């Protein structure tokens, strides 16, 4: 491949280069785009996909830096905080490798390490054709790499501590209190290390999910996980800006009362644990024999329990498990009213003094319809606390159940949901109606078939709201059955082409470690949104609590 030099008529021969990309894990999206643009130009690009600790890993990284012809440093708030990125940059500088800083986020350049301040920085915050061209020209114009220093400077030590021993201790069959305290102390020491956040979070979740964890240790783990989530959400000023803009885009719909909240079971993760944790507990209790990753799939584990025992054993075991988890938050035994009442009591105690509780914030919205995939009546309780008079309905998806509670549309045919008397539609069942609960794989499949074939299962006001309002999805994990079935069956009803006029938002439950590409997750969610004209779901990449706090601040400008 040949071309003319820009400085005259002398022909120059294009030569691909061997490149090393230094980046922080949270910049994985920008790095993937960067890699694609460079690979198209036939450059030999190496970047670390493992991002793990240990000497062997670090030796490979250092060898790749020594053999590269150009060191590309992805500059962002995350990489400025990364010990690994700073160590890689310092080693490249002492080896006299040419360095190309590429800007992937909004940063204070005064905080950039040497020698970044003395170099021209390429802006790659948006992947545009112009930026891609500038990138390739900058690589082509970079000073050729010279010979390595002789002798080589000493190799820096690994910047990331190997947490393998912690992982091994967590795998023990039993953990006495002292061992649990030691593990929490070990993990707390890494809370300020941004490179370790994904691994530390995963290990904390593993510790939290153990059946033998002591209550006091569980509270400490919850607090540490909360710190990690908070720090993760605040790392990028660019993310904060885009999140504020996203919330503001909802204001016109808020003023018109044209928003339909759709809430999932993860709204109460802090009360009963995540669905994955519950699945793991059941997998252990019922000796689920499948692969480890399948032990986190609640519908699949529940299907196994039903097949090996019966549906009543599954339901009674689930009720008992949830009651135990809820009771942990109460100082005294609470028995009156059963599990449904226990959920409401525990939620009320927890939200005491919390200004931006997600249910309470949603209850302030002027919405005539609320859709919930949670079996407890928390949304109804929050609406009543807000001075409203909600009507709660349940989807009657099972044809073999004959004792459904009477519908409001039977007792009051003229009922029209309003902001003061809204309809709360429990799409996947209510605790007060045990046979209505959608739990197993077969349940989800039958629900999807029935809801698709029989449109009357979804009340007309709910169908209308899902077809002609801004949708606000909170408390779902993008990998769960709930959101897939929900978006396949409920969203996309006749007339849903009007949805393109609105801003639709999904707050991802956990912006966590195992989600590498928010953009890819967004495309995944859009695909399940339905078959209508140019819909767009924007993902608020943060926790439900953080979204509620931001939404609460916006509500002050609307009400």
What's this entry about, in short?
By secondary structure, the protein is α/β, with parallel strands linked by helices.
Question: Could you explain how this protein is built, in words?
Answer:
This protein is an alpha/beta fold. The chain folds into 3 domains: 2-141, Rossmann fold; 164-235; 239-271 and 357-558, Rossmann fold (3-Layer(aba) Sandwich). The protein is built from 24 helices and 14 strands. The strands form 3 sheets. Strands 10-11-9-8-12-13-14 form a 7-stranded parallel β-sheet. Strands 4-3-5-6-7 form a 5-stranded parallel β-sheet, sandwiched between helices. It has a two-stranded antiparallel ribbon with strand order 1-2. Helix 10 crosses helix 24 (544-558). It is globular.
The CATH architecture name of the largest domain reads: 3-Layer(aba) Sandwich
Main CATH class of the largest domain: Alpha Beta
Q: How many domains comprise the coordinates?
A: 3
Shape: globular
Q: What is CATH's topology name of the largest domain?
A: Rossmann fold
What is Rg?
27 Å
Helix content: 40-55%
Give the termini distance in whole angstroms.
63 Å
Provide the structure class: alpha/beta
Give the helix tally: 24
């Amino acid at each position: 491949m040949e071309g003319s030099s820009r400085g005259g008529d002398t022909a120059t021969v294009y030569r691909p280069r061997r490149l090393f990309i230094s980046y922080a894990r949270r910049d994985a999206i920008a790095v993937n785009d960067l890699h694609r643009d460079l690979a198209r130009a036939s450059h030999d690009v190496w970047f670390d996909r493992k991002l793990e600790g240990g000497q062997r890993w670090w030796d490979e990284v250092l060898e790749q830096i020594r053999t590269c012809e150009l060191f590309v440093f992805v500059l962002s708030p995350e990489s400025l905080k990364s010990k690994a990125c700073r160590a890689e940059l310092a080693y490249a500088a002492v080896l006299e490798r040419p360095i190309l800083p590429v800007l992937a986020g909004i940063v204070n350049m005064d905080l950039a390490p040497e020698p970044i301040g003395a170099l021209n920085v390429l802006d790659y915050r948006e992947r545009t054709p112009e930026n891609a061209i500038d990138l390739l020209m900058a690589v082509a114009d970079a000073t050729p790499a010279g010979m390595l220093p002789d002798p080589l400077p000493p190799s820096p030590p690994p910047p990331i501590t190997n947490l393998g021993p912690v992982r091994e201790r967590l795998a023990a069959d039993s953990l006495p209190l002292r061992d649990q305290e030691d593990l929490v102390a070990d993990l707390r020491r890494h809370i300020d290390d941004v490179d370790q956040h994904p691994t530390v979070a995963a290990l904390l979740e593993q510790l939290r999910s153990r059946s033998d964890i002591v209550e006091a240790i569980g509270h400490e783990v919850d607090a540490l996980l909360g710190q990690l989530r908070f720090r993760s959400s605040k790392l990028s000023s660019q993310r904060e800006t885009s999140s504020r803009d996203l919330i503001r885009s909802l204001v016109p719909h808020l003023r018109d009362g044209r928003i339909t909240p759709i809430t999932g079971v993860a709204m109460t993760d802090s009360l009963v644990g995540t669905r994955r944790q519950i699945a793991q507990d059941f997998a252990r209790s019922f000796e689920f024999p499948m692969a480890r990753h399948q032990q986190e799939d609640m519908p699949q584990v529940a299907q196994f329990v039903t097949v090996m025992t019966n549906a009543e054993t599954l339901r009674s075991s689930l009720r008992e498990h949830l009651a135990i988890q809820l009771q942990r938050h109460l100082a005294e035994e609470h028995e009156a009213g059963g599990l449904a009442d226990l959920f409401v009591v525990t939620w009320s105690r927890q939200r005491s003094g919390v200004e931006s509780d997600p249910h309470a914030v949603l209850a302030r919205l002027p919405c005539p319809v609320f859709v919930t995939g949670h079996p407890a009546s928390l949304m109804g309780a929050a609406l009543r606390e807000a001075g409203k008079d909600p009507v709660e309905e349940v989807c009657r998806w099972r044809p073999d159940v004959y004792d459904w509670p009477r519908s409001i549309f039977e007792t009051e045919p003229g009922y029209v949901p309003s902001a003061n008397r809204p309809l709360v539609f429990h799409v996947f069942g209510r605790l007060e109606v045990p046979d209505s609960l959608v739990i197993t794989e077969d349940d989800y499949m039958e629900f999807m078939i029935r809801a698709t074939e029989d449109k009357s299962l979804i009340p007309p006001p709910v169908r209308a709201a899902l077809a002609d309002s801004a949708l606000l999805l909170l408390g779902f994990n993008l990998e769960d059955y709930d959101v897939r079935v929900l978006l396949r069956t409920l969203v996309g009803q006749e007339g849903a082409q009007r949805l393109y006029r609105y801003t639709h938002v999904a707050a991802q439950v956990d912006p966590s470690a195992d989600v590498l590409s928010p953009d890819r997750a967004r495309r995944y969610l859009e695909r399940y949104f339905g078959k209508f004209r140019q819909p767009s779901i924007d993902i608020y990449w943060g926790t439900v609590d953080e979204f509620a706090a931001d939404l609460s601040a916006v509500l002050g400008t609307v009400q």
